[in-house]
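Researcher: Let's do a round of design. I'm pasting the structure tokens now; please hold your answer until I've finished.
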């Protein structure tokens, strides 16, 4: 198991405070291209990693806001098209700009999973479930039953890195 190393607590989060130093996008790109990231001090790697994460979050927030506004605008037009089609008792209308098609979309869910699972067992209807494995449940099952591994089960494990901002300490008097 790798050792956990503690760092000195910071008075202020330099990434949140907008510490720019020499860690610009150009510095990151040039270090990455020359393969020098392993030569960087570890604290600088973490600082740059967090700064990139902050930039990603900012871009994602802008994107999400624009996307939400566009979808809301599109929903207004979707409702108008639906009303026109209902008034004309039509399921498809062709225009020079595209064909509008109205269809019924039904989504199924249950409020009683125990009864639903019993129903599936009684009717041998496993196809009523989607084909994916509940990840946490499978991990727990294998931990409790390491000798019971289903045939054809694949496991893809990889190391993941997450970086948290430092805890801000308050000066003691």
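Researcher: That's everything. Go ahead.
Model: Designed sequence:
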């Amino acid at each position: 198991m790798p050792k956990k190393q503690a760092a000195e607590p910071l008075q202020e989060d330099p990434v949140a405070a907008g510490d720019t130093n020499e860690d610009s996008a150009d510095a990151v790109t040039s270090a990455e291209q020359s393969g020098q990231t392993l030569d960087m001090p570890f604290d600088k790697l973490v600082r740059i990693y967090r700064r990139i994460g902050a930039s990603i979050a900012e871009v994602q927030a802008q994107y999400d806001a624009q996307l939400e506004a566009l979808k809301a605008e599109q929903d207004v037009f979707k409702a108008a098209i639906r009303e026109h089609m209902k008034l004309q008792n039509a399921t498809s209308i062709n225009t020079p700009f595209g064909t509008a098609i109205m269809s019924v979309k039904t989504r199924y869910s249950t409020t009683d999973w125990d009864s639903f699972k019993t129903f599936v067992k009684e009717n041998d209807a496993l196809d009523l479930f989607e084909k994916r494995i509940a990840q946490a449940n499978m991990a727990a099952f294998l931990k409790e039953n390491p000798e019971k591994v289903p045939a054809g089960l694949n496991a893809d494990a990889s190391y993941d890195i997450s970086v948290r901002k430092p805890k801000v300490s308050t000066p003691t008097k």
